[in-house]
């Protein structure tokens, strides 16, 4: 895992308990992963000019890119990347300096830009674009480019948000068990 976790200016990522890091992923700098999180093949995460926080039981799927926005005169705090608990980030997603609440699903190929806020219990459809500064209200499905509120989530969809996270915890545990032999 030493090649997966890399320092930037002497700061290494911090990893919680029972975390799975695929050997092909790269995490650099000020990144914290909560317990039972999973990082899948070819994920690139750079906590270099700001920080990244990934919550418990969240999964970042294959080919996703996670980055932040630097601090500057116009925006003294910049935009860190904050990902809550039980979040499923689909394959090939781009998250840049945004905030994602708990029990969120970000569909494959979606892009979420600086200062965007996704509240708890939201589904973002595959291929959607969440523009800078946009807030997605809890309890809804959002789709499109740019993203628009499509409809309230059905009860089965709300339940799926937790189920998706739970399924990835089971899968990452299987991967860890195989690695431990």
From TrEMBL:
Q: Which CDD domains match?
A: LbH_gamma_CA_like
Q: Name one Pfam family in it.
A: Hexapep
The protein's superkingdom reads Bacteria
Q: SUPFAM superfamilies given for it?
A: Trimeric LpxA-like enzymes
Cross-referenced InterPro entries: Hexapep (IPR001451), LbH_gamma_CA-like (IPR047324), Transf_Hexapept/Carb_Anhydrase (IPR050484), Trimer_LpxA-like_sf (IPR011004)
Tell me the protein's name: Carnitine operon protein CaiE
Gene from which the chain derives: caiE_2
């Amino acid at each position: 895992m030493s090649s997966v976790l890399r320092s930037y200016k002497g700061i290494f990522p911090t990893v919680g308990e029972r975390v799975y890091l695929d050997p092909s992923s790269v995490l650099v700098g000020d990144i914290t992963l909560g317990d039972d999180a999973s990082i899948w093949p070819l994920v690139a995460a750079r906590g270099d000019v700001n920080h990244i926080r990934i919550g418990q039981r969240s999964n970042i799927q294959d080919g996703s890119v996670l980055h932040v926005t630097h601090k500057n005169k116009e925006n003294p705090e910049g935009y860190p990347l904050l990902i809550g608990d039980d979040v499923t980030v689909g394959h090939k997603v781009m998250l840049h300096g945004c905030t994602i609440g708990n029990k969120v699903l970000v569909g494959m190929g979606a892009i979420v830009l600086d200062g965007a806020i996704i509240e708890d219990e939201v589904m973002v459809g595959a291929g959607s674009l969440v523009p800078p500064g946009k807030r997605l209200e809890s309890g809804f499905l959002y789709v499109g480019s740019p993203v628009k509120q499509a409809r309230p989530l059905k009860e089965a969809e709300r339940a799926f948000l937790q189920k998706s996270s739970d399924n990835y915890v089971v899968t990452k545990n299987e991967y860890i068990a195989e690695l431990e032999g």
